[in-house]
Amino acid sequence: MAENIVKTSMTMIQALRSAMDVMMEKDDNVVVFGQDVGYFGGVFRCTEGLQKKYGKSRVFDTPISEGGIVGVAIGMGAYGLRPCIEIQFADYIYPAYDQIVSEAARLRYRSAGDFTAPITIRTPCGGGIYGGQTHSQSPEAVFAHVCGLRTVMPSNPYDAKGLLIASIENDDPVIFLEPKRLYNGPFDGHHDKPVVPWSQNPLGEVPEGYYTVPLDKAAVFRPGKQLTVLAYGTMVWVSEAAARETGIDAEIIDLRSLWPLDLDTILESVKKTGRCVVVHEATRTCGFGAELVSLVQEHCFYHLEAPIERVTGWDTPYPHAQEWAYFPGPARVGAAFKRAVEA
Amino acid sequence: MSKGEPLRLHVPEPTGRPGCATDFSYLRLSPAGAVRRPDVDVAPMDTRDLAYSLISVIDAEGNAVGPWVPQIDIEVVRKGLRAMMKTRIFDSRMLMAQRQKKMSFYMQSLGEEAIGTAQALALNEDDMCFPTYRQQSILVVRDYPMVDMICQLMSNERDPLKGRQLPVMYSVKKAGFFSISGNLATQYIQAVGWGMASAIKGDTKIASAWIGDGATAEADFDTALTFAHVYRAPVILNVVNNQWAISTFQAIAGGEDTTFAARGVGCGIASLRVDGNDFLAVYAASCWAAERARRNLGPCLIEWVTYRAGPHSTSDDPSKYRPGDDWSHFPLGDPIARLKQYLIKAGAWSEQEHEETQKRLEAEVLAAQKEAEQYGTMASGHTFSPAEMFDGIYKDMPEHLRVQRQQLGI
Fold it and tell me: Where are the beta strands (DSSP E) in chain A?
């Protein structure tokens, strides 16, 4: 069967667009909207051509109002639609925080299942693009903390499409974070080297039709024996570069679903390696890494041979000129690998 | 350039505080029958005069006058009066039950019974209302069982919401009554989305959005108006101006020298300002707005001018911030008394029927309360199992919640 699947080389942008295309074709209740999403096809081209194909009543532009975009999606979900909406940058999701936290996340619970919010909120996140303070943030921890939400972040085109289809089909509200640094090609933190496009990477080979990548399921991105790396998004690629450059045989786990997460895969790996490094772009204090460190400590205490390391963004707003001093690149990640294996 | 005086911050104040009478002249009233009734396809900007006047039908003598006298079957009016009476009796019984610690909290709708009742009667059963915590009259007139309401209030073993929600935060999909949230104004924009969904699917259902005067200051209010206008969403945007947001007079919400209806006109939405204590006016305006929405002519904003006669909630003491006898001076009176007078004058009601109805409804409410109490009260401690606490957060229970439930030992 597998040989019959038609695969096409896609960027992450094309893969995400393909996921929405597949779902809009499959389910009349899927609607797509957000700022500049309709006619123009999105500032990152993720929705290009969809309005032309499905019409303005299913793919449309909205006023610049994040609370409004999420609020109407919740109302549509209560009616029975399945909105897949876009917030232009994760940095601008905060005006919608009340609707996400107080409403979308709680609707099923507070109504005892009377009403649900089967919505997917796509939003580009992450830095490494000279985005400065408001085009670079990684706010996953503020969503992972909210009960009732699912928080998901892909690291490659194949997962991006499969996870987005799974998210749209899921009956729980999903925060779908897209690392915009990975939109056109993998990025390992070496900003001085040219970007290699997805067409030169096997993970850029994407089936054209319907498939899913299950939520709550991590992927072992690089098997290894010496230490376990817990990462997601761009940091998966940075961690791989760090392993290559240090020669340390790191087992890199791409969480994919941040919360709820795949605890079994994490624990199995750490129990095997006895060492763990957590890597994320987001700021350190109360970042999602703290939860990962806690979980590993609680479950793997007797297997640990070294303190759990965290390599993260600094506890500062995301700067512009100091981008590469802020961004946790392969040198900083590699140094943590060394500390972990030498401890 | 002249050297100006020092600037002064303006902080609005109500005219009436404890011990002194309110001057209600700020209300911008119009005599019953005086305000015109435009066609339902009126251009929003041609409703400016309506946003600054007041649509009333029942005059001081109990006659229905003017262009807004609705086409309504007298049986429906009688049903409306009974539902308003039932709502008030229900409120007063539940207030007592709260004082007896059978529930932790309650919110009356005293004085505002006409608005939810008459609008619900103007809507179809499958039109979805997005209420606040003070539209219980919608559930009452839609004949949702009082026993179920009381079970929610008492968070007992039969609570439809399994003890998860504060009392009065009902959710009744089958009665077209959207899940109430404690977060103000959030449902206003959701109602617009529901209406947009109905339009996307080519349906015929419309949405009814509800908000209070105080909550219009929330961002979701303005957002809802913008989206409703942009997409011509089939939605009735109700603003219940009961003059008070807990202790805060409506002027602090932005009502001084303007009206809330005027906000609608500013956003390009046809807007009406209506006597909220006049059942017939509420019904007529709601029918007008519903027809406008159903005919794809767009949304309508209606400011209902009324008065919050009771305390904000059982945790509130209004005598600390407003005159004790304020309601008796409110120019638009009591919605039940006014409709009763109208119906008697129309020969469709009598003092005797009123009294009998009152007694019958009191007995009905009491019986419902007794039945609900069999399933427990907060005082008796018969509530849902703590195991329920972990259920329904996600469609399927994730592993971490299964573990936490086990840690609780259940």
Answer: 7-9, 30-34, 59-61, 82-86, 120-125, 150-152, 174-179, 205-207, 219-222, 227-231, 250-254, 257-259, 276-283, 309-313
pLDDT in tens, B202-256: 999 999 999 999 999 999 999 999 999 999 999 999 999 999 999 999 999 999 9
Chain A to chain B Cβ contacts (< 8 Å) = 139
Copy the structure tokens of residue B103.
């529930």
- Is residue B295 helix, strand or coil? coil
CB contact under 8 A, B171 and A115: yes
| Closest residue in chain B to residue A262, using alpha carbons only | B399
* Beta bridge pairs of residue A341: none
- Tell me the sheet residues that pair with A257: A152
Could you report the predicted ipTM of this complex, rounded to two decimals? Answer: 0.97
Q: How near does any CA of chain A get to the CA of B336, in Å?
A: 32
Cα–Cα distance for residue pair B65/B73, rounded to 1 Å: 16
Q: Which stretches of B206-254 are DSSP H helices?
A: 219-230
Q: Choose the closest CB to B392 out of A62, A99, A108.
A: A108
The beta strands (E) that lie in A89-243 are given as 120-125, 150-152, 174-179, 205-207, 219-222, 227-231
Catalytic residue among A135, A145, A303, A320: A135
Report the residue from B193, B392, B393 with minimal CB separation from A75. Answer: B193
A135 catalytic? Reply is: yes
Return the residue of A nearest to B205 by Cα.
Answer: A79
Structure tokens at A265: 């895969």
> Could you give the strand order of the β-sheet that contains A219-222, starting from the edge strand earlier in sequence?
A219-222, A250-254, A227-231, A276-283, A309-313
Test B226 with A68 for CB contact under 8 angstroms: yes
Question: What is the distance in angstroms between the Cα of B225 and the nearest Cα belonging to chain A?
Answer: 10
Q: Do A75 and B393 touch (CB under 8 A)?
A: no
pLDDT digits (tens, 9 = 90+) for B299-340: 999 999 999 999 999 999 999 999 999 999 999 999 999 999
* String of DSSP letters for A267-309: HHHHHHHS-EEEEEEEESTTSHHHHHHHHHHHHHGGG-SSPPE
Residues of chain A with pLDDT under 70: 1-3
Which residues in chain A have their CB less than 8 angstroms from residue B161's CB?
110-112
- How many other CB atoms are found less than 10 A from the CB of residue B103? 24
Residue type, B25: S
* pLDDT score of A1: 46
Burial environment of residue B363 by CB neighbours within 10 A (0 to 12, 13 to 18, 19 or more): exposed
Q: B173 exposed, middle or buried (CB, 10 Å; 0-12, 13-18, 19+)?
A: middle
Q: Which residue has the tokens 């020092």?
A: B6
